[in-house]
Amino acid sequence: MPTAREALLDAALSALATLPWTSVRMVDVAHAAGVSRQTLYNEFGGKEGLARALARDAADRYLTGVEQALGSAGGTEDRLAATAAWTVRAVRTNALVRALLTGCWSERLPRPAPPAAGGTSPVPGRRRADPGPPTPAELLRRAGERAMAALDGEGRPRDPETLAVTCEIALRLALSYALVPAPEAEGEAAPLVRLVAGRTADAVSGTSPRAGARSPR
């Protein structure tokens, strides 16, 4: 059974499917979640707190999907390809994930402001201390850190620098595909990331058979 917080987040997301954020009313969210409006305010403090929680939840769900993709079968290239496919799918199906990874927020979305420093608040201290959502660079960095942790020491590439470069290129390439308005982007991104990951590992580590070869005159 979901907690009150989970039910409220789900209700807010359902409301966003048909309404812009400015038209979403707290009383309606509480009613849809089956809790009192006071429970909602106790949990989030207000609409701005709910917006921050929705964005953080979307970021967490994206990173959970990254971890699941990295846990798929195969070597480094295959697992990065699965992560790329997930990134394309998440950006295309979740407007909040798209906004978080690109920094482009439409008026329909609950773009949260950073939490105010100091002052009084009716929200419990642990809620006031909740950080705002990550910036696009921070979210990509966190995804990259998860990729490095999952792939370190397994297959190619073997050294940390090569792995960091490979993961960053894979994620940025996936994001570029996610923003292309083509229905086949998800299917195209995965094999390209697999190919680029392998070649990047070779080029950065200097193991490519062409590394060091002279350019033809």
Q: SSE layout and pairings?
A:
Elements: H1 4-16, H2 26-33, H3 37-44, H4 47-70, H5 76-93, H6 95-102, H7 125-128, H8 136-151, H9 160-178, H10 185-205
Helix pairs in contact: 1-2, 4-5, 4-8, 5-6, 5-9, 5-10, 6-8, 8-9, 9-10
Short précis:
The chain has 217 residues and is mainly alpha-helical. It is built from ten helices and no strands.
How would you portray this structure in words?
- This protein has 217 residues and is an all-alpha fold.
- The protein is 64% helix and 0% strand.
- The protein contains ten helices and no strands.
- α1 packs across α2.
- The radius of gyration is 21 Å and the shape is elongated.
- It starts with a helix and ends in a 12-residue tail after the last helix.
- The C terminus is likely disordered.
The portion of residues assigned to helices is: 55-70%
Poorly predicted residue ranges: 208-217
Report the span from N to C terminus: 70 Å
Structural class: mainly alpha
Shape annotation:
elongated
Query: Whole-number average pLDDT?
Result: 82
Question: Per DSSP, what share of the residues sits in E-state strands of 2 or more residues?
Answer: under 5%
Radius of gyration: 21 Å
H/I helix tally: 10
Give the strand tally.
0
* Oligomeric state: single chain
Series of H and E elements = HHHHHHHHHH
Major β-sheet profile: none
